[in-house]
Automatic annotation (TrEMBL):
Its cofactor is Mg(2+). GO terms for cellular component: cytoplasm. Its EC number is 2.4.2.9. It comes from Saccharopolyspora hirsuta. This is Uracil phosphoribosyltransferase. Residues 5-205 form the Phosphoribosyltransferase domain. Pathway: Pyrimidine metabolism; UMP biosynthesis via salvage pathway; UMP from uracil: step 1/1. It catalyses: UMP + diphosphate = 5-phospho-alpha-D-ribose 1-diphosphate + uracil. Signal peptide: none annotated. Binds 1 Mg(2+) ion per subunit. The magnesium is bound as Mg-PRPP. Allosterically activated by GTP.
Amino acid sequence: MDVRVVDHPLAKARLSTMRDARTNSAAFRAALQELTLMLMYEATRDAEVAVEPIHTPVARTDGYRLANPPLLVPVLRAGLGMADQAHRLIPEAQMGFVGLARDETTLQPTPYLESLPADLSGRPVFVLDPMLATGGSMVHTIRILTERGASDVTAICTLAAPEGVRKLEESGLPVRVVTASVDERLNESGYIVPGLGDAGDREYGAV
Ligand SMILES: O=P(O)(O)OC[C@H]1O[C@H](OP(=O)(O)OP(=O)(O)O)[C@H](O)[C@@H]1O
Ligand SMILES: O=c1cc[nH]c(=O)[nH]1
Ligand SMILES: [Mg+2]
């Protein structure tokens, strides 16, 4: 499985702002949006382009656009903080939604929302979730997508744990990961260490 770690200095700086326990919700959301821009930029580096002639005020030249606009899938709640920024970067993308809450005792994802196109065959899909921890939520989401025919899935995660990366790899699902960091480990409560805490709570407040 392809795991791309975006370690650009600006990505590291935004991630540090998100990690810092002193960062308030507004600054956390702003840093997440800026980091999402960088991760999406890197994740679309090899996207297929269509070429068509355009006219500048001076001459005719080749113009480019995405040949196959993707589906963006934020995983609620925390992934919602990445959705607008990714959509601004790819305005022609469609958006679907998955809602999951991890049971903090069993660490299993509990689904509560699924709003996706029925047929995803031939369509690139970008799943937006800041956190890949045990990997349970991401595996659940990608299974839903592959059941609809998706075969080209990219997980955009600001942070990943080695355990989650391993679980995705062992799942055999057609996915690659783009992240700003693969951290050290999970702690006994299933939180990424050093991590940044609960991403959804830091964006929107504790539930
Ligand atoms: O890899 P996993 O162990 O499954 O954990 C990762 C999941 O946990 C967080 O969501 P959470 O369940 O806290 O929901 P929230 O976004 O509403 O806070 C995060 O945004 C992922 O979806
Ligand atoms: O560290 C973690 C693990 C799961 N979900 C989070 O929001 N943070
Ligand atoms: Mg949460």
